[in-house]
Amino acid sequence: MNALEGIRIVDLSTAYSAPIGTMQLGDFGADVIKVENTGLGDGSRTWNPFMPYGESMAYLYMNRNKRSITLNLKSEAGRRALYELVKTADVVVENFRPGVAAKLGVDYETLRAIKPDIIMASLSGYGQTGPDAKKGAYSNLAEAQSGLMSLTGFSDEDGGQPTASGVAFGDSVAGMFLVQGILYAIIHRMRTGEGQYIDVAMVDSLIALIQHGITQYSTTGENPPRVGNRDLSDYPYDTFKAKDGWCFLGNATASDWSRFAQAIHRPDLAEREELKTPDGRWAHLQEIHDIVAGWTAQRTRAEIEARFMEYGQLFSPINTISEMMENPQTKVREMVVDLEYRGVKYKDKGIPVKMSKTPGSIRMMPPTQGQHTDEILKSIGYTEEQLAQLRSSGAIL
Are strands 336-341 and 344-349 parallel, antiparallel or unpaired? Predict the structure, then answer.
């Protein structure tokens, strides 16, 4: 049995952020019904890069464990079908720009009148309130607005500039906060019988990850600087190039770096008074960096790892995606899984939350547009004749 078995999610969302969240709910057993428009469907179906059969890899990445129904929500018949579906649901999810759900007649107040205990979750760039609410936002814009981008990348002095994450970080994090909110609301409803409205913003989600930056500015008046791959709390903590690729090394104990110094065959460094504190090492950062870089350049990553494990210091190779996929740890944790869809074999991410009693599972591949329309509508009482009428009117495909 999956943890969320028996929970039905009507998912009006498209693109990236909210579909990531509803996929995670589906991984743990929720019945996720993906409502797509009768045009091109979910916009992510058309994003590069594409699978050999012509569908987007992005769509594939975000939509496993879901069923798909097409509904034209601009038509009265399409909305009526949605309302009937909502009567059977626990949660409705949407990520339209604020105001669009109300125009379509699928906002919380409308749906609550149909099903009083419904939980509705909205995910947007800036949230449902505030002067920026109706602006469009994608992940990099949210990173910029939140201040996160100002912390990412190398300093101006090192030739750097504010830098976005290498993945759609804002979308993914907001999707995870969306899942949290939905689970909180489900627990509240179990206790009280009350539904509620959930408002999650990408920008808010990233502001929540700024760590000490807000406290630092409010108490010192100084913006935290960009420090590249380093950490202001201690040094060495940085990227270095080995003979066969890049790696990340770190001092394991800020108060005593003698074991690190021994690991790089320079125990004399630990005896220097000016290097005995993190602040002192930061003051001599370039000198230490160059010493460590000279040492790593003469060794393979495997040799460095063996030495650092011996001395209890921090090491990781900076893996490419292919190296990560072949890593024994990745395989043991089942974080890369073998899948097949439309005759194409491929690998995808596994499920990161490991549960002993109710583990997640990949039960269904991403649906084709409207793959389950008839099945779902019949389950809530529509007849063949009514389906034919909906189809002829353009309310469904």
Answer: antiparallel
